Amino acid sequence: MLKPRPDNLQGFVLLAAPELEDANFRHALILILRHDEQGALGIILNRPMETTVEVIWNFLGGAGPCPSSAPLYQGGPCESTALALHDHADMGDQVCPGIYFTGDATWHGQLLEQSPLTRIFIGYAGWGPGQLESELAIGSWYVAKLDNEQLLATPPDLWEVLMEAIHPTHSAPNVDQRFIPPDPSLN
């Protein structure tokens, strides 16, 4: 699961360190879609919205009733058109073996009709040249490799499960993590 940090993080997942206080990334799991000398692009896997894909079905090119009642996901703080994460090689760019993404909305409706594993994200996380490397150097992120099932069907508590495996001292033994709000200032 936890991996040494490679030079290119495409296909790897960033786990926000417990100390990361930025509300946009607190307890985030970010799949890196692209990483090169120009920077990095990723999507937050564990931020389902209360809105479902049905709300944007017509925008996604769907005809007839929407085949999915899955949630939309908040992919990050940077605005973008909808991005799809899926398992169809012929409809996008490869992130890692068996996982693809596309920002081409003309394919989103077809992807939702063909695969219940397709996830739609609004927004993304982006880093300029050297920015992600700087954040890694100061310990803001842990790097992990997840299997395809975890990438396409991220369980709601995956950050906690992974963090406990990576950093067991993160959890206080007498505190049930389910009752700690995502934003402790709301407590």
Brief account:
With 187 residues, the chain is of the alpha+beta class. It has four helices and eleven strands; from the N terminus they run ββββββββαββαβαα.
Protein model, in words:
The structure is a single chain. With 187 residues, the chain is α+β, with helices and mostly antiparallel strands. It has one domain: VC0467-like (3-Layer(aba) Sandwich), CATH 3.40.1740.10. It is 17% helix and 27% strand. It is built from 4 helices and 11 strands. The strands form 2 sheets. Strands 4-5-9-6-8-7 form a 6-stranded mixed sheet. A 5-stranded antiparallel sheet has the order 10-3-2-1-11, with helices on both faces. Strand 7 and strand 8 form a beta hairpin. The longest helix has 10 residues. The two termini are 32 Å apart. About 3% of the residues have low confidence.
Task: Describe the protein's topology.
Layout: E1 13-16, E2 29-36, E3 39-44, E4 48-52, E5 71-74, E6 83-86, E7 93-96, E8 99-102, H1 105-114, E9 119-122, E10 125-127, H2 131-137, E11 141-144, H3 148-152, H4 158-166
CATH architecture: 3-Layer(aba) Sandwich
Structural class: alpha+beta
Number of strands: 11
For the residues shown, what is the average pLDDT?
Answer: 85
- Classified in CATH, the superfamily is VC0467-like
Number of domains: 1
Order of strands across the main sheet:
4-5-9-6-8-7
Rg over C-alpha atoms, rounded to the nearest angstrom: 17 Å
